[in-house]
Amino acid sequence: xxxxxxxxxxxxxxxxxxxxxxxxxxxxxxxxxxxxxxxxxxxxxxxxxxxxxxxxxxxxxxxxxxxxxxxxxxxxxxxxxxxxxxxxxxxxxxxxxxxxxxxxxxxxxxxxxxxxxxxxxxxxxxxxxxxxxxxxxxxxxxxxxxxxxxxxxxxxxxx
Length: 159
Description:
Blueprint: H1 3-11, H2 44-66, H3 71-93, H4 100-107, H5 111-152
């Protein structure tokens, strides 16, 4: 044993006896809705759109799990679900009924109409993200179908 090995051994921390392997982290808890989207103060049409948005968000998250997705897209979906959607709906609910007419006077549109327009914008963005994710699957299918067609075609001279 060399001089440096002796010095390193002197200053090294004592070796700990191997203990039990660390426990696996617990599975993530099911996500609790951040907001009660079935609140009766939300217009019926908006509640229907919200249900559709939440279902589409779940579907897009599943698509993201299958693909290598940029963190930006994943973050955008999480922000929609956890922050933007609940804040939008809560801000609608928080408007006192007696003052909702002020929105109409300022914009020419009712608060419920603006809420539904905003929900349509969220849905359009989710649809765009889903289309982009699906494009990989569409390309893979087209490529595989073209291969099969070439491989098993009677006109293929290399078969």
